[in-house]
Amino acid sequence: MRAAEHIIVLAGAGLSAASGIPTFRDGGGMWRSLDPTSLATPEAFAANPSLVWQFYHYRRTKALAARPNAAHDIIAKLSIPTYLKKVAPNAKSFHLITQNIDGLSSMALESLLEKTHAVDAPEGVSIPKASIVEMHGRLFDVKCTECGSCQEDRSPALCPALSGADDTFQNYQDAGTHEIKIPESDLPRCVECGALARPGVVWFGEIPHHMDKINELVLKADMILVVGTSSTVCPASTFASGVKEHGGKVAIFNVEPSGEDEEADFVFAGRCETVLPDLFPELDD
C-alpha cells in the first residue's frame, strides 16, 4: 500500500454481510425455497415478473433497514485523500468497484464527507464522490421495460400488491411451495409512460455498467484489494488477474477460500468488518 499509486477495491456480497444483507450466492442461501440466482435473469422476469418483483421487494426491504458496517467505513476513508495518504502516501487515485447493489458504500462515503467536509482533493488525487463505480446498478432504481426511463425510488413498497404479498407469505412455513401471483397490471409501473417497470440492476446475462471505465482502472492499478467476493462471476473475477498481469499487487479479504487465492500476494481470512479495521489502525479516529 505504501508503494502503490493507483489503488482499486473490488467488493462483493461479503462486504455487506455484517449489515444484514443476505449473501445468497456466496452463502448458498435460499429465498422462499428458491435459488435467488435463478431469479436474477431477464428470462426469469419475462416468464414471471410477479415472482421476480417479490424477490426484489424483499431485497429492497432488507437494504432500507441496513446501515454501513466497519468495513464500509474503512473503504470510505480510503476514498478521502487525507485518510488515504496515511496508509498510501504515494497514492494518486483510489476507486471502489462494487458488485453490490445495496448503496451502503455510497451511504458510508456520504456520511464521512458530511463529517469531514472533505470535498476538495489535492492536486493529482481523484475527487472522492467519483470514487465509487457501481457495476451492477442500484437496487433502488426502477427502470421502464419500454421507454428505458430510470428513476430512484426508496419507497418501502413500490406498489400495494408487493406489500400485500409479503403479509400473505408470513402465514406459510415453506413459502416457496405457495406462489402469490400478482397481476402484471398491479406490479410497479413506469412513472413516465405507464409500462411495466423492472429493477434497475444488472442481471446475469446482461453487460455490467461502466465497463470502459473499469477496464481503464484495472489497467492502471498497481494494487487491488478484493473484499468479500468469491471471484466466480465474470467479468469481476478477472480484475485481480488483470492487475497481476501488469505487475500490480493483489490482496484478498474473504471468509472462505476463493479461486484467486493462489495467485494473490496477500490473503486475509476472516470477516472484512473485523480484518480491515485491524489492518488499518491509522484510520481509526
List keywords for this structure.
single chain; 285 residues; alpha/beta; Rossmann fold; SIR2/SIRT2 'Small Domain'; six-stranded parallel beta sheet; three-stranded antiparallel beta sheet; 10 helices; 9 strands; elongated; zinc; transferase; protein-succinyllysine desuccinylase activity; mitochondrion; histone deacetylase activity, NAD-dependent
List the helices and strands and how they pair.
Blueprint: E1 6-11, H1 24-27, H2 42-47, H3 49-65, H4 70-78, H5 81-87, E2 93-98, H6 104-116, E3 132-134, E4 137-144, E5 150-152, H7 160-169, E6 197-201, H8 211-220, E7 223-227, H9 239-245, E8 249-254, E9 266-269, H10 272-279
Parallel strand pairs: 1-2, 1-7, 2-3, 7-8, 8-9
Antiparallel strand pairs: 4-5, 4-6
Helix pairs in contact: 3-7, 4-6, 4-10, 8-9
What name goes with the CATH superfamily of the largest domain? TPP-binding domain
CATH class of the largest domain: Alpha Beta
* Helix/sheet category: alpha/beta
* CATH architectural type of the largest domain: 3-Layer(aba) Sandwich
Instruction: State the separation between the terminal residues, measured CA to CA.
Output: 20 Å
Query: Which shape, going by the Cα principal axes?
Result: elongated
Encode the helix/strand succession as letters: EHHHHHEHEEEHEHEHEEH
Estimated helix fraction: 25-40%
In terms of per-residue confidence, which ranges show pLDDT below 50 for 5 or more consecutive residues? 171-176
Strands in their spatial order, largest beta sheet? 3-2-1-7-8-9
Largest sheet: 6 strands, parallel
Number of helices: 10
Count of β-strands: 9
- Rounded to the nearest angstrom, the radius of gyration is 20 Å
